[in-house]
Amino acid sequence: xxxxxxxxxxxxxxxxxxxxxxxxxxxxxxxRELLRxxxxxxxxxxxxxxxxxxxxxxxxxxxxxxxxxxxxKSDLYLAAVRSAAEELKAVTTIVEDLPPALTxxxxxxxxxxxxxxxxxxxxxxxxxxxxxxxxxxxIVEASRADVVDRLARGFGIRRVTxxxxxxxxxxxxxxxxxxxxxxxxxxxxxxxLVQMLAASVPAVVATATDAQHRHWx
Length: 217
What we know:
Elements: H1 3-11, H2 27-41, H3 52-59, H4 63-69, H5 73-92, H6 100-117, H7 119-127, H8 134-154, H9 162-185, H10 190-214
């Protein structure tokens, strides 16, 4: 086993990929490459120690081009966080017409696969030095609200009351906490983690539905 592979196994931290050779790309594809490079570096060390030149090099772009798209490091970080949130939403949105339980299962499988592949970025966004930044928090909270909305719609809750929102939002906190624990310890299989998360939802939905019937407003 190589030294880098040994380090990754011991620390659980993925080393960023090698710098890409420069190549011509369209505007949107180039921006995606720059954001991917940023996400690959987020979480490997404090963000203030990451240079714009390093991000550009990893993406196979010039530093002036990076500044053209993202004038400041803050602009780049926020765009990367927003990109990660949108990507996670996209991969966990199941478009097939499936029973709610199966839709949930597929969505959770995609969620765990994504955080496994993007562990450093996930950890940095939720626990990193900039995680408390109001703009970062706004993106994270919007993502959480989307999960609440999809849970409610998936299980037939058409108009979410404040009590129901609080109950479902509490489960989102459990989802994040369980995933962070799994990334830190990795002593459960992904399959077991998904089963555990899926098994926790019916009780939460039942409580939310009961709140609707009892008019806990």
